[in-house]
Amino acid sequence: MGVVARLLCIAVISAFIGVVLMQSQGIEWIPTPWDPVIFDQPHNPTVYDGEKARSEGIKYANLTCRAIGRPDVDYAWTKDGQDLDMTTGKYTIAGGYLIINNPTYPADEGTYQCIAFNIHGADVSVPAQFKMAHVQAFDKTPRSPVTVTEGRGFKLECGGPDAYPALHYGWYKSVPANRIIPNERRYISHANGDLYFKHAEVNDAGEYRCFVQNQLQTEFFGDIDNRSSPVITVTVDRDLNPPISPREPVIMLNPADIVPIEQYTAELECFDDAYPASDIRWKRLDRPAREGGVEIEFPARARFNSHSHALIIPEVTEEDGGIFQCTASNEKGSVSHEGKIEVQVPPKPKVKDSEKPLLVGGTETFSCESEGSEPLVYSWYFGRDKIVTDNVKYIVATDKLTVKNLDLDDQGSYRCIITNDWGVNATEIRLTVRIPNIRKPISQQNGMEGSDITMMLEWEASPPPTMEWIKQSEVIASMTPDGVMTTTSNKYNITKEGYLVIRNLVPEDAGSYSFRIQNVYGSVDTAGRLYVAQQSRIVQGRGPTNVNMEQGGTATIPCEGLIDSLLESVNTWKVDGRVIDFEKESFNYKRGPKGELIIMNANVMMHDGVYTCALDTSVDEQTASARVQIKGVSEAPVGVKFENVGSNTATLRFTQANTNGDSCKEYVVEAQTEFDDIFFTDRLWTQVWRGSPSSLRNAQGGGKTLRLNNLKPYTEYSFRVMCMNSYGMGEPSWPTERNRTLPGAPPRAPGNLGYGNGMAGDVLMSWEPLQESDWGDETVGYRVRYRRQGTGDRFREVYIDNPEAAAYAHTQPPAPVNVPYECKIAAYNNYSVGPEATWIAYSSSGLPDYPRNLEIIDARNDTVTMQWSKIPNFNGPIPFWGVRYWREEDRPRTARRTRRSIGWWDTWLRYIPEEEEKDETGFQYARLYDDGITKVPGPSDKETYILRQLQPNTLYNFQVRANSHPYFGEYSNITRATTMGTINPWLVGLQGSWWVPMLFWFMVTLLIALLLTLCCCCCLWCKKRQRRRPGTGNFLVPAQRIVVDLGACTSDPTRANAMRSLVSLHG
């Protein structure tokens, strides 16, 4: 409570001080009353969706109306020109809103108008239509059946019910789920819902019903029958003389003349009866075709439905209107029909809301001229009363109102409401009377000697007052209400707002100035002071000077100024016109104690430029500039061009920009091709040339040229150039436009050459296909040549046109097993053959045999080391060894060594993938690779591998087979082994430590010593306890008892005898 009390006290004191200051300035605070002004008009129309409201539990509708005024505003409403009866409970007014409880159709529909009023006047809103969304029931009179001949056009009438707003139409056949979808042959009119068929088909027969929904998409309850028409039965008679004869179109649905409202959607429809189906085309004509109309441009927003059956213009404007022609044509002829769109425009006042002063005894004429479609009806209101001509006070002439013999009772709001059949609008003119009042007084102002100054304030008065500016009791400038100005010197001027402008200030202009306004309702004045300061300047020799510095260095630019003692200043620094933010750029700039600029960590790209020091005061600004040049990395070359393009050569032309104090030592050219795209990353740049400037040629105009070689043929390139000097590599230039080199021979041969395994005697040659960047043309193929090594036979030659081919197999006639072949491959395209590569491939040894002598040479708790003999007489590649193993207790199906039959089709030409290792119950599979980890050293005629991730203390069965892509060999015989049990990891870590046994025996000895010490302590405690008798003082007990007790405290006979002797001595 204490805090609240203090805050209230401070608020009261602050308000008191404010009032005193205002009084001292000649300002009197008067709460200005004003008559109401409606700023939130009722929506026209206001549509109430009753079904939606009831579904949300809302049982009322409301119309908007809000106004401002002083004192507070009250509200009243009228319906169709009559005041509402507020006593029935039907209506409630809350803050201007009119609430209609339990609205009913059509009783509550009508034109509503809001009236806002207080003791000073009133204002009326524009009239607003209140509409209730509804859809009446269909007329349930049975519909006549429709019979049509196959191939003839027909229509089904919907006969929709009364509804607001307009309806959406649909049709279904037999059941609601079987909706009729409009297409080229069928069309549902948006205007009345009729269903049109261009020509009948046999399957069109059936029962049809039209259903509707209003454009608010109001949810409806109950069965869809509530919104569906009676059934229309359609019968289609087959044409007895098929096929159906073609006929020219006949328009069934003509484009109608329509009068849409501006900013709404205009729609023309056109549908014809034709066979075969016709094409529909729309034109816009400047006048009817019979009068020689020619085609003109369509409205920009015009569009068509999917089959041009409807022309739709959303948000139509008056300029979109005109004659529109629909033409339907097929192979038998064409027919046209015209429709007219005449856009109706709601009222648009040309005069904005305005305010005029009231001149007592005078005459005032108001105008509310408006645009819009005729007829326009004008109504004038003063407050809540409608004005009619009486030839004494008021004269109403359509859009003009004349008010005679003005007096103070005529002040207030005059509202003009304009209506036509398509909308309503309003404008307002206010006659005002304001007692002179200073809203914002003259403030203390500072001016600079030799400059101009404008002394400003804010005031209000109506009618316009006489204005006077006074200095030292002398009126130096004045202005009458008619705008006639009088001054004592040509250095003074008064603006229409009442501001005083003083030109070419001198020290004598300083002093106190007063401003007075006066009209027939009173006068008021205010005063303020003007100070004239000497002009600021930057001290000669202490301003910014040009600076040359090296990259990474620090420099200081001075800026010391002289200012008048009345003023405060701050040094603002700019670089190339940009204001430096010392907080955000503290790493690069710092302000010195005298306003100087300190540049740190100089960088060419950031700091090089023109620096301007601005000495800012409240009345002037003095500036001085200096150039800072930083020696650093070069700027990017400019004007880079890519020209004279060949298949693997091109010329680069560029001009070197500023090198920032150090010449280029090297140029670097980087390239980017169409093949450098990597998803989600920027394209890569690759260096293609690097050299000294002496390697370049001079071009006309001072540029440089460079001839690039070793480019890839038929590749789209873009280049950029960089200059490197003593300070490092400069920024890259802008990339050149992309350009493609000419086609040429593939620049290289396929790589990763090798051979594979297959049927015995096959020669399986493999390679890695060329990337598209190495094709040199739109496509590429491979020329393969081979012969048996050392025979001197002619090379067999094969051409493969597939750019993705990766292998070729020689199968006929079969070759001897494991014989070397000399192979050559080159890529070729439409241009030429590329370089050739050579390698040795061995003929296949066939399927690998099963491994022999499989044994487990070492077993740990989770690994075993396996060893078997190398497969004899097999020279094919073995990428990996496959292992099949299982636990003994799992007992899977009997593992057999079965021979796989190989057919003549198992060749590389018909690629067969490796056998999948099926996850059969009980079996586990692993692959052993020669990766330096799985394979371990062993005898040269053996294969030795480690199999990991086994379970401890488990009996396993193992089998091994070889893989020679693309085949697996047979499994070996079964070998068994048991893994070791799990070892405590702590003990595993201690194995082999020499100090562990010593530590063990030390701990045992220490434990025994502790036990003996505890035993002795217990014996001593027993001895002292037995030498006391309960209830008496200290005395000795019989020796025999002590001896027996102490002797029982030890199991050592020698110690027991010694203790008995000791006791007997003290007996």
TrEMBL record:
Species this protein is from: Branchiostoma lanceolatum (Common lancelet)
One example GO MF annotation: cell-cell adhesion mediator activity
Gene coding for it: CNTN1
Residue ranges of every copy of the Ig-like domain listed in the record: 36-125, 127-233, 249-342, 349-432, 436-533
Regions crossing the membrane: 994-1022
UniProt xrefs under CDD domains: FN3, Ig
PROSITE patterns: FN3 (PS50853), IG_LIKE (PS50835)
Gene Ontology BP annotations: axon guidance; brain development
Protein name: CNTN1 protein
Lineage: Eukaryota, Metazoa, Chordata, Cephalochordata, Leptocardii
GO cellular component: axon; plasma membrane
Signal peptide: 1-22
